[in-house]
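> tool_call: predict_assembly(chains=two)
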Amino acid sequence: MIGIDLVYLPEFEKKLKNISLEKVFLPFELSQNKTFESLAGIFAAKEAFFKAIGKKEDWFSVWIEKNPSAGSGQGKPELYSTLIKSNQRAEVSISHAGDYAIAIVILFPKT
Amino acid sequence: MKTLFDLFKSFKKQGSEEVFVYRTEIRRFSFTYGQIYDFSLKMAAFLEEKGIKKGDRVALWAGNSPWWAVCFFGIILKGAIVVPIDFISGKTRAQTIIKLSQAKLVIQSNYKLEKITPSASRRYPEGHSGLDSVIIEDLRFILENLKPLSTFPKLNPKDIVELVYTSGTTGDPKGVILTHKNIITNILQAKNHIVIKSRCTFLSLLPLSHMFEQTIGFLTPLYRGDKIVYLRTLKPSAIMDALKEENISVLGAVPRLLDLLKNIIERKMEAKKLTKVFRLLTNLSENKSVKFKKFVFYPIHKKFGKNFTMFISGGSALNINTAKFWKNIGFKVVEGYGLTECSPILTANTLEKQVLGSVGKAVKGVKIKIGNGEILAKGDNIFSGYWQNEKETAKAFDKNGWFRTGDTGTIDKEGNIYIRGRKKDVIITSEGINVYPSDIEEVLNYILGVKESCVVGLNKGKGEEVHAVLILKPGFKDAGAIIQAANQKLDPQSQITSFSLYPHLDFPKTATLKIQKYKVVEDLKKESKNKEFTPEDVLISLISNLTSKSYSDIKEESLLTTDLGFTSISRLELTNYIEQEFRVDLDDTIINQTTSIKDLREIIAKGEKSKSPNRLKFWTNTTYGIVIREILDKAFHFPFIRYFFDLKVDGIENFKNLKGPVVFISNHLSYLDQPAIMYAMPGKWRYSTATAMREEFFFEENLTLFQRVWKELSFAYATFAFNSFLLPQHSGFRKNLFFMGKLIDHNVNILIFPEGTRSREARLQDFMPGVGLMVKELEVPVVPIRIIGIENIYPRGAKFPKKGKCEVLFGKSIEFTTESPSEIIEISRRAVLNLR
């Protein structure tokens, strides 16, 4: 299963600036990501995840970690969720260019 | 007490007394005077490290929290100058203030999307190397490793404490210079004017960047040794919860907040179809005693808690009808008057006597007189000038040194002061008559259907014209009739001659919710150019605003996502607006692909929060629940365990110095793990621990009726016999996180089996990621547990247990700080494995 989401940064900045950020982001995500570009990427990843699982649940049930120590490369984002079945795993990729942030999430059967 | 340093020193003596409570949505954190004392000294040390010297400016752009207090006192201890910036302000305003004050450091927050980038550039005149920045939420980790500052610059009462930039109903920010003497004078004036005998609990909702909240809700309570409660999010439900659970005695409020609370009460009455009864009762009890009112309106008083004493109202003029509303239902609203320039209080009513419509008498040490209709004041609490702004400073005082408040008013024989309005707001009509917009707004706001009004003078060539701008309540359209009704109540000289409907949902406001009239006038000018606006319904105009679709395209059956093109971001914006506009909390999932406008209306009408049933119950952690468990354990569970188990317990000494609450993390081999672990724990811990269980174990989909009944029954038994609660695996996590936060706040430990399912072959499986998140956000230590041998007593798939040997091992507790959820999992998993 696969999900994708594209975020237009000016819209994201304009609209989220008046919304309390804890509606979407966990406190630890806010402390790991200080710029709005990086938060926009996380937002896209969460949306993409909901598309991949085919339903919308609350924003706290999926989160992105950027652990320098987490195996594959420097600070590669990893997606975690309380909604992923134990026989599944999720991969995420986030990219930024100009005014856009984009994220793709794929769910694989665990091998 | 001469300086705020003296106030600060008093914190040490109060040591273990609770001073702040900080309610995030997840947890409730408590701080003592002693802790704030220590943190502030460390903050001063941090500022020293950053090269902040006496007289340097430090901008503080963050929401109310105990950490705001730590920053405030840290800056003062270093002799530097606090420049508070309203947290709701945007980046542009924050940057303007930083530039005007030449701040060297800005303290900002993770909870603001926009941040100011530190720079080393030479943007400032000589002597300024640039702007440094720190995030207020990071301070707790940064300060931990610092040594408290021990030498301080000498402070003089004439030294500057802060530069408070006026929020500006007119535009250009001016930095009000306030000294130790100004502020200390006002603290003492406040304390002696509104005398409260016992120790109080304040709920602080207004921004600390504003002097009203700083003096009334922060410095005076600290001087008195009171307790202050802060909320991270100011949602209506969070406010009501705090009132109920924290035994609040005083709430500092701007009139707009009192209006909002009034609306919540009236809406509740409407929903219960009690509006008429409520009106009748209010009229009936109008001249009765407070005791009588408290009896009649008990259900309302109950919501404010048993200690609630009063609202202190300031910031702008209180509408007389709002004041009457609260008085009639038995609440005290003590209104005062002041300005940032006066630190801020000039006059106030008292707890004993409130004169309706008056802002009370001058506080001791303040002299007030009326000159040319304008209120003039003198006193030690009044500032000496604006920061680097001689022109404005000169304008602020008359030739005899009286401070011009810019407000017009009168004084009665007893010395009570009545405010008429802002001098510069006065409309001078073509007949040369002075009309006070606030008088007209008061009449308008009381007419049925008006949500809010704003009266301005529009000059169309022949002197000013009284123009009313209206925002109507949902369902009301006929503005003409409203204006007519208002004019019937107004003097012939102050009739409204023209009106318009405001094309937005709310007027532009300052941090203390005053309408920024200059912006409204700007909008009116813009609006007159492209005229086509006639909002019929709040919801429709809201949706039209968010999607830029025209009204005719928005039908009752339109689906939000497919027909109206709501994106994920605008959907978020929509729920946010609905929450503010209709004062209901909404779940993230409430709007989905199949939601139509009609559905949305129903959701709002019901005030519905979410669709799924709530199975999280707290009562099993009360004494009542504990007694039931003790009885069941002694009569049934323990004999059972003793019969089947040859149990060995290891690591019990780890409980000796253990400080709860904690999260116990154990491997999972059998359904009997939980009872065995509970049996192995010391009694004190056993009965203050709740166990997380998989929701899907009890409530799978597609069960037969018999299976469902069986599962419901076993769930009910697990709830009260084992104090278990559910963790979802296929639905949202937020409400569970909040529930676990509540458990932890009540000193209830949580036992969790992070493998999710019982492991085959007794090998430790991967942990569910939610466990790491939960430990991270609950900010609690982990105690690892390992259970061995139980798989032989009651293995997976077995019908009946058989006798056997079993071991329960308890490890040492592990504390976490900046680790990420997955690191927490890794460390905890290793700790479980390493037991033995």
